[in-house]
Amino acid sequence: MDRIVPVMTPLITDRVLNRTTLHRQLLTHRLPLTVPEALRRLLGVQAQESNAPYLGLWTRLSGFRLDDLTAAREAREAVRGSTLRGTQHVHAADDYPWLRPLVAPVLLRGRQSAFGTRTVGLDLDELARRGAQLLSGRTMTRSRLRDELAPHFPGVPPEALGWSAQAVLAVVHPPPNGCWRRGGATPFALAEEYLGTPMHDRPDPARLVRRYLAAFGPATVADMQSFSGVRGLSEVVDGMGLRRYRGASGAELFDLPDAPLADADTPAPVRLLPDFDNLMVAYADRRRVMSDAVRAKVCVGAMIAATVLVDGRVRASWTIRLRRDEAVLEITPLEPLSRTDRDAVHAEAAALLEFAAPDVDGRRLHFHD
Q: In this record, what's one Pfam family (predicted)?
């Protein structure tokens, strides 16, 4: 539960909170950053779907091309793996060694929830040792690793072995897996070998708090924990000397001492965000970017729809269908849009369609009423 703070704590209005969030998320204007620079600023981008990181970076960076993220991953400047909330993200390569050990308990909780009853008695330390031996100097798919682990752990369901190994080992998924329009079997490589650097043996949760606030603040402790999956951050935050604000609801918001707030009048251009974009899942309380009624339409079960920001708030959702000779982008308003707003959404959506399907003649854009 968010802590209620005294009235003498400075109040931050909903409008300033919204504009500050958008500014830190590179959504008030596109910046000419490299892929690693952007990933560091954003603390990574969601990568549950292969195309999402590309679309999320395009909407935030000027001059971003489809090849840029692929090239960064091939150069091992960016890396894909399970981290925040136990889900797939693409991070700057130098962020993974400190972040992955910090979220290790999150992955272990997820493993226990999914496979705990099917793996009673499984020695996770032995699984990690065997898995590391098998992966040393090699890249293997989850199914291949599962099959090679199975003889060493008789009686354990093979599928549970493959997923459990992903939880107990710091692994990354080399390209082309997870690149633009590329799916298929997930390859595993030991992160330390792939990146050529050891994982941190003393992960620092205060580092996570600082990086989160730089990308998403001001925010509550509940927001930080919801975004990362890491527990026990209240005690960490209390010892960091952070700036404190009172939100419109009375909740206590934290921020970096030297981090400026955006002006309430900062323009917020239309932006299209992909499925599972971190802006949509970065907060326990998401009212800074959408109403509760809109959230019920956007966040359905484990799914997070692709969204359209109009004046800094979610006002529509969108989908895209890419085929060899056809690309169709459809927009569904979730709240009434003025003619001016519809025109601005149409222009931004057309630009995204051209980015995603540059060589397709049959590009079509459709607005649902």
A: AlkZ-like
